[in-house]
C-alpha cells in the first residue's frame, strides 16, 4: 500500500514538474501568452496607422517634394482637403498588378524550384540545405538556402535588360511606385490573413502555435511559429528575404536610373546610398544560413508584423533615401561624401564582426578564438516544452564583452550613414535612423525579457558580467 502511494506521489510530482517546465519554457520563446493593455494598445495603433504612415511618406514625395510638414499645413490651414490629396494619388493599375504578380511569382520559382548551386563554387559561402534552431516544441526545421542565388539571377537579368534587351525601362519601379504600393498591401494583408487561418485550421506544427485568445494580438504577432506549404516553402524565410530584400537593391537601382533620366547624371549621394545599402543586402544573402539563428526566424511567430511588414514596410520605408534623392538630387562635397562612406563602412564592419563572433562561438561551441584569445563565456541551461534540458553558452568577450547588443550599435551607425548621405534639407530621409533606433531598442528589451525567462539566474550572471546594452558606459 505504502509502495503504491509512494509511486502515485512520484508520478504526480513528475507530472507537476512537467507542467512547471512547460509553463516556464512556454514563456521563453516568441511573443507573450497574456496580452497586457500596453501591448494591445500598441498593436491596435500599428494595425490602424502603419499603412497610413507608409502612404503619408510616399504621398509626401509624390505630391510635396518629400516635405513631411507641407501636407499637414495644407490640411490644417484648409488649403487642401483629404479628398484633394486622395484624388491626386495614383490608383491600382493593371500594369502594376501584372508587374507585381510576375515579380512575386518569379521569386517563388527561384525559391522553390532552383536548389542552391552557389555553395558549390563560392568558397566560404554556406548554402543548400541547412538546419534552423530548435523550436519551443523541440523541432529542428530544414531550409533550402538559395537567397544569394536568387539575388544574383535577379540582378543579372536586371542589368541584362537595362544594358542589352530593353524589354522595360529601369525606371519601371519608380514610375509605378504608388500603384505597386497597393499591390504590396494586398499581398501583405492576404498572406497575414492566410497565416492566421492556417494557424487555426491546418498548422504545420500544432505544438509550436501560440494562441492568446486576443484576435488582434494573434493577427499581428502570429500564431504559427514556422508556417510552411509543403516541405520547403517556409513563409518566414521567403517573405523576410524575398520579395522585400531582393527588391531593396533593385528599387535603389531604379531610383538611380530615374535620377539619370531626369537630370542626366547620378549624384554621389545616390551612389553612396546604392553602395552602402547594397553591401547590407549582399551581406544578408551571403549570411542567409546565419540568419536562421536570428530573432526573426528563431523566436518570432509569423503574423501581420512579419507578413505585411516584409511586403510593405520594408521595401517602401527602407528605401526612402533613394526616393528622396530622385526629388532632391544632392551632390555632396568630397569631405561629406567620404565621411558618410567611412561611417557606413565602420558601422557595417562592427555589425558584421559582432554577428560573426557570436555565430563562430555558437557553431564551435566555444572552441574558437575571439580577438586571438580563447573566448570567455557563461554556461547556461534552459528547458524546452517537452521538459528536455538543454545547455548553452553566452559569450562575454570580444564585442560581446563591450555591450550585450553591439551588433545593433553597428547597424545603427550604418543606418545613420544612409540618412546623412541625403544632406540636411528635409527630415524625411532621417525617418530610417529614428525607426531603427526604436526598433532595435525595443528589440533589446524584448529579447532580454525572453532570455531572462529562458536562462533565469544564468541570464542575471550574464548581465552582471556585461552591464551595457548598446553603448558601453552609457546605455
Ligand atoms: P542577435 O543576433 O543579437 O540575437 C539575439 C540572440 O542571441 C538572443 O536571443 C540569444 O539567443 C543569443 N545571444 C544573446 N546574447 C548572446 C551572447 N552573449 N552569446 C551568445 N548568444 C547570445 O539579434 P537579432 O536576431 O535581433 O539581430 C541579428 C542582426 O540583424 C543584428 O545585427 C541586427 O542589427 C540585425 N537586424 C536588422 C534589422 C533591420 O530591419 N535592418 C531588423 C532586425 C535585426 P539564444 O536563445 O540562442 O541564447
UniProtKB/TrEMBL annotation:
UniProt-recorded name of the protein: 7-dehydrocholesterol reductase
Biased composition (Basic and acidic residues): 1-15
Organism from which the protein derives: Lanius ludovicianus (Loggerhead shrike)
Keywords on record: Cholesterol biosynthesis, Cholesterol metabolism, Endoplasmic reticulum, Lipid biosynthesis, Lipid metabolism, Membrane, NADP, Oxidoreductase, Steroid biosynthesis, Steroid metabolism, Sterol biosynthesis, Sterol metabolism, Transmembrane, Transmembrane helix
UniProt membrane topology term: Multi-pass membrane protein
Domain of life: Eukaryota
Molecular function terms, GO-annotated: 7-dehydrocholesterol reductase activity
GO cellular component: endoplasmic reticulum membrane
Assigned EC number: 1.3.1.21
Principal location class: endoplasmic reticulum
Presence of keyword Nuclease: no
Keyword Coiled coil carried by entry: no
Subcellular location, record wording: Endoplasmic reticulum membrane
Membrane-spanning residues: 37-58, 92-114, 148-168, 180-201, 237-255, 262-282, 302-320, 332-351, 415-440
Pathway the protein takes part in: Steroid biosynthesis; cholesterol biosynthesis
GO biological processes: brassinosteroid biosynthetic process; cholesterol biosynthetic process
Family to which the UniProt record says this protein belongs: Belongs to the ERG4/ERG24 family.
UniProt cross-references to PROSITE patterns, sorted A to Z: STEROL_REDUCT_1 (PS01017), STEROL_REDUCT_2 (PS01018)
Described purpose of this protein according to its UniProt entry: Catalyzes the last step of the cholesterol synthesis pathway, which transforms cholesta-5,7-dien-3beta-ol (7-dehydrocholesterol,7-DHC) into cholesterol by reducing the C7-C8 double bond of its sterol core. Can also metabolize cholesta-5,7,24-trien-3beta-ol (7-dehydrodemosterol, 7-DHD) to desmosterol, which is then metabolized by the Delta(24)-sterol reductase (DHCR24) to cholesterol.
Amino acid at each position: 500500500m505504502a509502495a503504491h502511494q509512494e509511486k502515485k506521489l512520484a508520478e504526480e510530482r513528475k507530472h507537476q514538474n512537467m507542467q512547471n517546465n512547460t509553463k516556464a519554457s512556454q514563456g521563453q520563446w516568441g511573443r507573450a501568452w497574456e496580452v497586457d493593455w500596453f501591448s494591445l494598445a500598441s498593436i491596435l495603433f500599428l494595425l490602424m496607422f502603419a499603412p497610413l504612415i507608409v502612404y503619408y511618406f510616399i504621398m509626401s514625395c509624390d505630391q510635396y517634394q518629400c516635405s513631411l510638414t507641407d501636407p499637414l499645413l495644407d490640411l490644417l490651414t484648409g488649403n487642401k482637403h483629404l479628398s484633394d490629396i486622395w484624388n491626386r494619388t495614383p490608383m491600382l493599375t493593371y500594369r502594376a498588378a501584372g508587374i507585381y504578380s510576375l515579380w512575386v511569382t518569379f521569386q517563388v520559382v527561384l525559391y522553390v524550384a532552383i536548389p542552391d548551386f552557389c555553395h558549390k563554387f563560392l568558397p566560404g559561402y554556406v548554402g543548400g540545405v541547412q538546419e534552423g534552431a530548435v523550436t519551443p516544441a523541440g523541432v529542428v526545421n530544414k531550409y533550402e538556402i538559395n537567397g544569394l542565388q536568387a539575388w544574383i539571377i535577379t540582378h543579372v537579368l536586371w542589368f541584362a535588360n537595362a544594358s542589352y534587351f530593353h524589354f522595360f525601362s529601369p525606371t519601371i519601379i519608380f514610375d509605378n511606385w504608388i500603384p505597386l504600393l497597393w499591390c504590396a498591401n494586398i499581398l501583405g494583408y492576404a498572406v497575414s490573413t492566410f497565416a492566421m487561418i492556417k494557424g487555426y485550421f491546418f498548422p504545420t506544427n500544432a505544438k509550436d502555435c501560440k494562441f492568446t485568445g486576443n484576435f488582434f494580438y494573434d493577427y499581428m504577432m502570429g500564431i504559427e511559429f514556422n508556417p510552411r506549404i509543403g516541405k520547403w516553402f517556409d513563409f518566414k524565410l521567403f517573405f523576410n528575404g524575398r520579395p522585400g530584400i531582393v527588391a531593396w537593391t533593385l528599387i535603389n537601382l531604379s531610383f538611380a536610373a530615374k535620377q539619370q533620366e531626369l537630370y542626366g547624371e547620378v549624384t554621389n549621394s545616390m551612389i553612396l546610398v546604392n553602395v552602402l545599402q547594397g553591401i547590407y543586402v549582399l551581406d544578408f544573402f551571403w549570411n542567409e544560413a546565419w540568419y536562421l539563428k536570428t530573432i526573426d526566424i528563431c523566436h518570432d511567430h509569423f503574423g501581420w508584423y512579419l507578413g505585411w511588414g516584409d511586403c510593405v514596410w520594408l521595401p517602401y520605408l527602407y528605401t526612402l533615401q533613394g526616393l528622396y534623392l530622385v526629388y532632391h538630387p544632392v551632390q555632396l562635397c568630397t569631405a561629406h561624401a567620404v565621411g558618410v562612406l567611412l561611417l557606413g563602412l565602420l558601422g557595417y564592419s562592427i555589425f558584421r564582426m559582432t554577428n560573426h563572433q557570436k555565430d563562430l562561438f555558437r557553431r564551435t561551441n566555444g572552441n574558437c578564438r575571439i580577438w586571438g584569445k580563447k573566448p570567455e563565456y557563461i554556461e547556461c541551461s534552459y528547458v524546452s516544452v517537452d521538459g528536455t534540458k538543454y545547455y548553452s553558452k553566452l559569450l562575454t568577450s570580444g564585442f560581446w564583452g563591450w555591450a550585450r547588443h553591439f551588433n545593433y550599435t553597428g547597424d545603427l551607425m550604418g543606418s545613420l550613414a544612409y540618412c546623412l548621405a541625403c544632406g540636411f534639407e528635409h527630415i524625411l530621409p532621417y525617418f530610417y535612423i529614428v525607426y531603427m533606433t526604436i526598433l532595435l531598442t525595443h528589440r533589446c528589451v524584448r529579447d532580454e525579457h525572453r532570455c531572462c525567462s529562458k536562462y533565469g539566474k544564468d541570464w542575471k550572471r550574464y548581465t552582471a558580467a556585461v552591464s551595457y546594452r548598446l553603448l558601453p558606459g552609457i546605455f
